[in-house]
Design a protein that fits this description.
globular, 348 residues, homodimer, 7-stranded mixed β-sheet, alpha/beta
Chain lengths: 348, 348
């Protein structure tokens, strides 16, 4: 057993504080990762504040983890000490169901163990990446090519794969027109990915000030999400629209922008149910779909693709004492585009 | 110009009455069809009652038309006099847009002309199949193999194609599990089609009395739509669920029954928007989709498939004076499974 430094919150709206947690002794298929950076995902805040009422405290969030392999178990084949490695939002799954066997562990129909606020096979709560080290089975760790800086890599294990997977699944590529709603933590990676895949990419956002960034990141077009003229002009023009925003959007307005057989992928989980007119789907044989992050093979594919195309998250590096302030700023939309915690600031 | 007998309604909740309407003089690519039977679709009632407020009166409904070719224009190649022919819910489209060129005229992005309550190229309102004859361009008429009785064929041009198209599009076939919600005019054809395509077919209906019919029509399983145990037992088990009911159903309950990458196809247009929890779609990467009838090539494929597999609508033949009573019975769910008007009763 390893005792390590971490940052936890002890209740809804309680500030983060220094603590220690335990990581299990390395098993034969485990890797020990010295965490370098942990991204701050919007869902970390939801868990910290227990907005769904299911948070186990003390909570150590963090499922966008990048670091360096410090030790490997006897049977580990994928990693050597010194390799760069990442962990996303899962650390275990049943490995036996159809979905796990297809490498789509995110849809495990058995017992999926999330990186934090979940119960592991040992019966103990899992703790995330706001901590010095993590021990995971090598199956749930991803090799990070050394050309991707670790700070820019960390957010890819949630924000990156959550966009990469639907872009691939619904065939973003040459000749396809893709729209991404929200230029935030997810969207700013999504536009880079869509372009690198060869698709035409349009960004919708509420903030006119994001136009320059959208274009710099590769967008072919940028539209203000409240611009009625854009919605007239772009009727039936997209093959795929991905909404990255956690709030409700006017689904009927966006569905009208889908060409025949187009798909609107909703990634957010707003408080209220999604509402859509039946005719919005009947016309043009449109679909409304959802996806959850990605499986391990696809996550490896994603980071390799990012390395090949020079893609990374744009990050603001913060110290471990700045988590509360970062949460406030993230809730206010004041980040371009992802906070990552420099875990070195936790070792003191 | 041909003056023919028809039945019309002159306002919401006004009874049907005998009238005459005009059909255009045969153009070079037109066929004249002596209508033998016209099916009564639920949407006929919606139009007759102007539930969407867009009905032009006097209204001659009917878009499930089967009959015999009585004359052909000089350039017609697909039909000869004496052939059996059908017409569905469209009689014209732009022919130029991507969707028309793909043979998916139901998604025409230009000007689609519906069989009734629409304005044709001549600027006049279209009149449907509750009439002795119809003149349509051969492109919008379908060859009916003579092995399919005309009364059983008529409903296939709406009820049949509306199920055939999504079953084909979402890959119903061997190894696939399909559920159909509602054993009515659409559903009772859908279950026959799904079975003939080789899929496993389950029917959900509110009426226990329909079990025997569902099984006789080929269903492998029949479930009561209010049976909570069924919803527990069948979690994540279907690849495709098609709802044929015009009312709202509990989408979250049904979505939970879809396996990974499963699709729920909604064909009805309830009064209220569809409501769905975001998580119902995120889990298992599920989709909620809609479709509109089918294009001309697929409608031809559908009727040929029905002929090959001995599929037809189960019909109750009524006289032209019984339309009002049939509407009342259809609204009460008292029909197994489609009313068709014997158009011979109009000629007197």
């Amino acid at each position: 057993m390893l005792t390590i430094h971490a940052r936890c919150t002890r209740g809804p709206r309680q500030p983060f504080e220094a603590t220690t947690i335990e990581r299990r002794t390395l098993g034969p298929r485990d890797v020990l990762i010295d965490i370098a950076y942990a991204g701050i995902c919007h869902s970390d805040i939801d868990h910290a504040h227990s907005v769904r009422g299911n948070t186990m405290y003390p909570l150590v969030p963090g499922h966008e983890i990048a670091g360096v392999v410090a030790a490997v178990g006897a049977e580990v084949t994928k990693f050597a000490v010194g390799d760069h490695a990442g962990v996303g939002n899962m650390v275990d799954s049943c490995r036996e169901c159809t979905n796990c066997r297809a490498g789509l562990e995110q849809y495990c129909s058995g017992r999926r163990v999330l990186t934090y606020n979940s119960i592991g096979r040992d019966g103990k709560p899992t703790h995330g990446g706001y901590s010095e080290k993590i021990v995971v089975e090598e199956h749930f760790a991803i090799r990070i090519p050394k050309s991707v800086p670790l700070a820019r890599a960390a957010p890819l294990f949630c924000a990156g794969i959550t966009l990469y997977s639907p872009l691939r699944h619904w065939g973003a590529g040459p000749g396809k027109r893709v729209a991404i709603i929200g230029l935030g933590g997810l969207g700013h990676v999504g536009v880079q990915l869509a372009k690198a895949m060869g698709a035409h990419a349009t960004v919708f956002d509420l903030a006119p000030a994001k136009r320059a960034d959208a274009l710099r990141l590769g967008a072919d077009d940028f539209r203000i999400a409240t611009d009625a003229a854009a919605f007239s002009e772009l009727v039936s023009s997209f093959d795929l629209i991905i909404s990255t925003v956690p709030a409700s959007v006017d689904l009927d307005a966006y569905l009208a922008l889908l060409a025949r057989d187009g798909t609107f992928v909703n990634l957010g989980v707003p408080d209220k149910p999604l509402s859509v007119a039946a005719m919005s789907l009947l016309r043009n044989r449109r679909s409304l779909a959802g996806t959850l992050s990605g499986g391990l093979p696809e996550t490896q594919e994603m980071i390799d693709f990012c390395a090949e195309h020079g893609i990374g998250a744009e990050v603001e590096v913060i110290g471990a004492d700045d988590i509360d302030r970062a949460y406030d700023r993230l809730l206010a939309g004041d980040v371009r585009y992802r906070f990552v915690i420099d875990i070195a600031t936790m070792r003191s």
